[in-house]
TrEMBL record:
Source organism of the structure: Streptacidiphilus alkalitolerans
Keyword Ribonucleoprotein belongs to the record: no
Cited InterPro entries: 3Fe4S_ferredoxin, 4Fe4S_Fe-S-bd, Fe-S_cluster_ET
SUPFAM superfamilies: 4Fe-4S ferredoxins
Protein name: Ferredoxin
Length: 76
């Protein structure tokens, strides 16, 4: 079975660019005030999620291995 990732968005820094939802439409959605939310708190590891985290201009997206504090992005 592949890894599962915990997906978090720090909405105190999100500027609503929408890049994450464009990169991973299954992973993120913007609310009515253009704040990004993970569609699911945990999701299967995927290139799209990683690309979304990497594309965020303010590094608002954090990915961790589910059930642990081990970072996926940003790396340690
Ligand atoms: S890419 Fe970053 S700043 Fe842009 S909407 Fe997503 S979380 Fe917010």
């Amino acid at each position: 079975m592949g890894d599962r990732w915990r997906v978090e968005v720090d909405r105190s820094v999100c500027i609503g660019s929408g890049l994450c939802a464009a990169s991973a439409p299954d992973g993120f959605r913007l609310d009515s005030v253009r704040q990004s939310h993970p569609v699911q708190d945990e999701a299967d590891a995927s290139e799209a999620l990683l690309a979304a985290a990497e594309s965020c201009p303010v590094e608002a997206i954090a990915l961790h291995l589910a059930g642990s504090s081990e970072p996926v992005f940003p790396p340690d």
